[in-house]
Design a protein that fits this description.
31% of the residues lie in helices and 32% in strands. With 143 residues, the chain is α+β, with helices and mostly antiparallel strands.
Length: 143
């Protein structure tokens, strides 16, 4: 019974910590997404889903590599699965910094250019989460 109480305490502390983190990132002017080791989104701030032209539910319901995103490189070529910063961070256990991605937003009928950073969070040699940031850099591409 004591082990069960300890697990409940740990779960409660984790939930409080996650809520505090999400409250902190909500006030930022960049998008923040938190992904599990399978690149599935588990949390995000409002800037993240708004940058992608989605609702929070849509953001959390999609895979990071969902073909819906229609993501391109600066030269116009399509992002392959291995090109995505999240996948690179998971594969190589290292941050992937400064990746420029053009993302079509069908619901807004436009495209946004994002600078994306992906940081794997390691615990005992395993990735437990990937924190990804999104910064709108569209104005760099408007002539």
């Amino acid at each position: 019974m004591t082990a069960h109480l300890e697990i409940e305490k740990l779960n409660s502390a984790f939930q409080e910590s996650e809520e505090s983190f999400l409250n902190l990132v909500e006030g930022l002017d960049i998008g923040v997404g938190i992904y599990n080791p399978n690149a599935t989104p588990i949390a995000c701030n409002s800037v993240a889903y708004k940058l992608l032209g989605l609702s929070k539910e849509q953001f959390l319901g999609n895979s990071a590599m969902d073909p819906y995103w229609k993501v391109i490189h600066e030269d116009g070529s399509k992002f392959e699965t291995y090109d995505f910063p999240i996948i690179d961070a998971i594969t190589n256990y290292k941050p992937k910094i400064g990746v420029i991605m053009g993302v079509s937003r069908p619901l807004k009928n436009d495209q946004v250019w994002l600078e994306v950073n992906a940081h794997p969070i390691l615990e005992v040699g395993s990735i437990i989460r990937v924190i990804c940031t999104y910064k709108d850099v569209t104005n760099r591409f408007i002539s």
